[in-house]
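hi!! sorry for the late reply, been swamped w classes. u asked for the two structures so here they r. pasted raw, havent cleaned anything up. first the sequence of the first protein and right below it the C-alpha cells
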Amino acid sequence: MQTAAMTCVLCGVKVEGNFSGTGFDRLEPQDQMFLEQYLLAGFSIKTLEQNSSLGYAAIRSRLDKLIKQYKGVKEMDMQKKNVLEQLRKGEINVAQAKKKFEKF
C-alpha cells in the first residue's frame, strides 16, 4: 500500500500523488521521537542518557522493544506482499486474499 494524499492539518492544503512510506511511519509518535533523539545522539546510549532523564537500562529496554516492533512491521509487510503475489499469480482468489488480509 502507498499513501495517495497528504493534508496539512493547519492550513488544509492537500497534495495528491504516490508517496512511499517506511516501517518507521507506523510507529507511535513518541517512539519516532525517541528514535530521532537516539539518532541525534549519534546512536550512543551514553550520550542519550546524558541528554535525557532516562537511565541506561530504560534506554536499552526501549530500544529492544522498538527493534521487536519494527521487525514485526517488516514481517507483516512481507506476508502482505506474499498474499498479493499469490493473488497476482492466480494461486488464490480475491476472497481468499481478503480472508488472509483480515488476519493481519
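now the second protein. again sequence first, C-alpha cells right under
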Amino acid sequence: MSDSETAQASSASWTARWIWGRQSGFVLVVALAGLVLDQASKLWLLHGFGLAGRGPVPLLPILDLTLVWNRGISYGLFQQDGAIGRWGLAAATLIAAVGLWIWSVRAGHRFLALALALVISGAIGNGIDRLAYGAVVDFIHFHVGDFSWYVFNFADVWIVAGVCGLLYDGLKSGPNSAAK
C-alpha cells in the first residue's frame, strides 16, 4: 500500500469513527422511529383531522388538542418572526443534532445511546417544522383547572425524556466518570 493510500485509509477510518460507531445503528432506528411518529402526528392533525379549523378538542379533563404555532424555542422563548431568526434556529438545530450524533457514536452503553437518540429525534422533528412551516407545530395542551401548562408536541416529549435520561445517566455514573 502506498503512502497516499495509507493516508486515505487513515482519513476514511477517522471519518467513519465520527459518523458511525457501536451504537449508531440503534440510535438511527430510535431517532427515525421517533421522527416518524412526531411528523405523522403533526401531518395528520394539520391536514387529516383539520385541527386548525376545529379549535381546542378536549381529550381528558386535563388534556386538549390545541394548535399553537411556536416561532421560538421551549416555552415560546426567543420568538422569531423573521427569516433570519427562523433559519438561525434551524441552523442551531442542525448543529445540535450533528453534535449529539457524534456523541452517540461514542456512547459506551445502550441507555446513553437511547437518551441521545430521543433528543436527536425531537430536535430534528422540530427543525423540520421550522423549515416546512416557519414555526413548530405544538398541539398537546396539558392543564389542571386554571393552571395551564404549555402546549407541546411529541418531539418535545422525546427531548424531555432524552434529557432526563442524560441526567440520570450522569448521576448514575458519578461525578468523576467523565474524567476517566
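hope this helps!! also noticed smth abt the second:
The chain has a mean pLDDT of 84.
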